[in-house]
Design a protein that fits this description.
Rossmann fold; 26% helix; alpha/beta; binds S-adenosylmethionine
Amino acid sequence: MNTVYNTDCLTGMKSMPAECVDLVFTDPPYYQHRANDLLVRKNNGKPRNIVVNKFEFDDFESEEAYLDFMNEVIQELYRICKTGASGYMWCCDDYVSFLTRMLEAAGFKFRKVIHWHKTNPFPAISTRRMFANSMEMCIHFSKGVPNTWNFKSVNEMHNFIEAPSCKGKERTKHRTQKPLKVCIPYIEISSNEGDLVFDPFMGSGTTAIAALQLNRKFLGYEVNPEYCEMIKTRFNEFLEQNKDYKGEIPEVI
Ligand SMILES: C[S@@+](CC[C@H](N)C(=O)[O-])C[C@H]1O[C@@H](n2cnc3c(N)ncnc32)[C@H](O)[C@@H]1O
């Protein structure tokens, strides 16, 4: 418990027992195959900045390879979820329907797509003739009827959330880090204290930090050792800031 393993999630999940997870909260690779590196120029024409939209962990051989991988992950998720568990899976607009259909084929029930409006997206550039990418989506699903549904006020139960992308002290060097603000409400609604929250794609460890802050347990995987170092740093900061923390000490192995 309270461990992130530096290993491939498929290998890891296959060693987990069936029906042990209360909540899946995850942000898998998006397969941003259409995104190209973008060179932003100053008025004087000199390059100012390179915005990379495609990340090394999106580097699948083909769309088919990406979808096969996600299908295998989803089937393992179904096996390890308890009946009544909920799940949240971030994705981009390209793949929201593919992933929803896969979740349903594995046996999960689709509940809703949650929309995150990023208030500080990378601005639209007139020459690209495209809107700014200011929305991300999160599929909410469940294994049967959700056991836990900690209803908040009616106005907090919309499938829409507005927040800037990660910045300030919370920000690590992980390029696709999710802000805690768009994770914590859903973990609160769909799990209780002491429950096990699982994330096969931990990245900089956002799901683990949210779980620690909410007194949930967590377990997860992250294949990249550099990101695992970021998770360790975040765990140390959490312990430093929460000297009275009495739960299991979080670790990365
Ligand atoms: C979109 S990022 C997650 C970011 C995370 N939500 C955060 O806030 O930092 C996806 C992560 O999945 C990891 N990943 C990709 N393939 C993996 C695999 N087979 N097993 C475990 N982790 C993997 C990547 O290295 C990347 O850090």
